[in-house]
Amino acid sequence: MPTSHPGETIAPTPATAAPPGAHSGRPTGRRFGKAPRRPERIPAPLLCLTAMFLVQTGIALSKPLFGPLGVSGTTFLRLGFAAVILLAVTRPRLRGKRPRDLAAATLLGMASAGMTFLFAGAIDRLPMGTAATIEFLGPLAVALVFARRASHLLWALLAAGGVALLTLLGEGEGGGGLDPVGLLFAFGAAACYAAYILFTDKVGAVFEGFQGLAVSMTAGALTLAPFGFGEARDGLTAPGASPLALLAAVAGVSLLLPVIPYALEMTALRRMPQRVFSVLVSLEPAVSALVGLVVLGQLLGAPQLAGIACVVAASVGATLTGRR
Fold it and tell me: Which tens digit of pLDDT belongs to each residue from 117-128?
């Protein structure tokens, strides 16, 4: 869940994806209202780490669905299920909302849809840890752009060095070089992630609770409909396909990402400072690499692990040295 707001130098936190993918569309900061109650005895950092692992597991479990449903079909269905769940739970009230508020929610949905689709395309061609680290450059860039200290140049250079290790010395899943199309998808997801953060700040200020998220998630699903509906339909009606099993799998993945992690992260945010939360979520590229290893058997080489470590260190450094 990105927690950096324009004007702050706190490192934003990466989805997914997110929108909703992750990573993909996580609410920003404390403006989304109160989270559901959870047992107070559960430490807030544990809730945060659990949410990160759920997000990355949801991403990993989405990958096998790319075969029968396609990348755009899977992404469209996942956003669609998430939108239906959020609409049913929040019942957003649009009466009295200004056109520019609705436009901001729509743009947020489009950014979330682009981030979710492009990241899905990236992990279809790249190891999860590599794709997640490159996508994380979006929120890190927002934090550095709004930085007010010259020392933040150090963190930018450290992150650039990490990306260089990932892209120039990294290996693809087949042992060869990284897929250039996958890299383009990952960098595109990073750009959408940055836009997502900025629009989330605006939407979170004018909508209560998760209502703005429900509206934007619906807009994201509609944005992907022209590209994903046909592919999803073809996959569900293909000879030998099991449509009910596929839909159940997509519905389950949509709960792992984004529905359940949102509740966990909102609870964690109520019980810990945003800066501490940002430091914890800076570990997400490393969590992604671990989940990719355990769930998908993706073993990263030393240059890739070093690149991930550089980006994580840059995010932690930018968070700890930034102004409140």
Answer: 999 999 999 999
